[in-house]
Amino acid sequence: MTGARARPGKRSSAAGTQGHTRMLEFPFTPHLMPATILDGNKIAAEIRAEAATAVKAMSARGLRPGLAVVLAGNNPASEVYVRGKVKASEETGIYSEKHTPSADTTTEELLALVADLNRRDEIDGILVQLPLPSQVDSKKVLLAVDPAKDVDGFHPMNVGFLSTQRPGLVPCTPAGIMEMLQRSGIKVAGQEAVVIGRSDIVGKPMAMLLLNANATITVCHSKTRDLPEVCRRADILVAAIGRAGMVTRDFVRAGATVIDVGMNRITDQAEFKHLFPNNPKREETFRTKGSLLVGDVHPEVAEIAGAITPVPGGVGPLTIAVLMSNTVKAAKMRRGSRVPELMRA
Ligand code: NDP
After folding, report:
1. Are the C-beta atoms of 257 and 315 separated by less than 8 Å?
2. Given this model, what pLDDT does residue 338 score?
3. In this structure, which residue's CA is closest to atom 34 in ligand 1?
4. How confident is the model at residue 344 (pLDDT cuts 50, 70, 90)?
């Protein structure tokens, strides 16, 4: 273990003072300061309120943004995610519609559906919920989405726009994390940022956004040597791995900002005890539900981090909030020129 002592001076510069943070209720060792909690729910509510204001102004000029969600098959987790996205659209005032092809749908059927959505002027955003059924060529379907309507930001055209710093649509989770850092007053330019994970939807775009914001980037993955040592370089550490509690205290420099993207559902009692040896509140939830949603970062990290995102209530809510703002952005970029004053708003 290294760097077990918090550095209050460092912490105050890492964590912002703009009201997006709260102190962690964590059973911590008395001589250590608990990390500042970055409140994803609060920041997500702000982003959604801003999107709702824009939607209202656009709707008044006959340009109500529209989102189409494609949910193929019967994946229970996908059904929950899509329900959340449709509900958020309704709350934001965005027109939304859900398409639910059956589990035996084909690539051709989905391509025809996407082509129809591409053609419809009132649809600004198309979201194809992954994973698609195994017989479907997912890459082909995603490639067929009009890049101007690609609110997930997964199309190679948008990936290229991001890496060449041109206006485009950026994947929701990393874009939400950048909003969180900015709105919490956490400095990015000139900082050392380490991203664990190199997926197309989180790790790579996250690294690119941090690089575009002038951080010095290291991207780690399953073949990285001396992972904890590499991670200890970080002023900002982003964990997007998919392994419950893998990032322990020895990965983290005292005072660093730690962003936990992981969403892992644990059901094993021993694993629960390893992560939460002394947390009666969580134990109650675990016992009642038979499972618990946990991040990639071990709870002990809150004892030495300067600022940290909780799970749940950290990165998760930001993803849906940015989907709303991406839909507004797509509508403005594609149709906004028809009402020039909206583009200036
Ligand atoms: P992927 O499985 O696509 O990628 C995981 C990455 O972690 C890979 O790059 C992999 O390396 C790396 N990795 C796996 N094991 C290790 C290890 N032992 N050491 C170092 N690196 C490792 O996952 P995603 O990027 O899609 O998602 C990551 C997590 O974030 C998941 O828990 C997911 O549920 C969550 N998530 C949360 C969202 C939210 O809104 N909060 C949104 C999206 C995802 P390699 O490339 O070498 O295999």
Report:
1. no
2. 79
3. 263
4. low
User: Are residues 133 and 104 in contact, defined by beta-carbon separation less than 8 angstroms?
Assistant: yes
Centroid of ligand 1 to alpha carbon of 221 (angstroms): 9
- CB-ligand 1 contact for 315 (6 Å cutoff): yes
In which band, very low, low, confident or very high, does the pLDDT at 116 lie, cut at 50, 70 and 90? very high
Q: Helix and strand tally (H, E) in the chain?
A: 13, 12
Is the beta carbon of 261 within 6 A of some atom in ligand 1?
yes
As given in the structure block, the two tokens for residue 327 are: 């839909």
Atom of ligand 1 lying closest to residue 241 CA: 7
CATH of 8-39+172-316, one of 3.60.15.10, 2.30.30.40, 3.60.21.10, 3.40.50.720: 3.40.50.720
pLDDT of residue 171: 98
Joined tokens for residue 309 = 């995102």
Tell me the CA–centroid distance for residue 242 and ligand 1, in Å. 4
Ligand 1 mutation pick, 263, 318, 320, max ligand atoms within 8 A of CB: 263
Q: Cα(165)–Cα(208) distance, rounded to whole angstroms?
A: 9
**Terminal Cα-to-Cα distance of the chain (whole angstroms):** 50
Q: Where are the domains of the chain?
A: 8-39+172-316
Predicted TM-score of the model (pTM): 0.91
Task: Pick the residue whose CA is nearest to atom 6 on ligand 1.
Answer: 197
Q: Kindly report, residue by residue over 155-178, the tens digit of the pLDDT.
A: 999 999 999 999 999 999 999 999
Mean pLDDT on 283-312: 96
Active site residues: 85, 129, 152
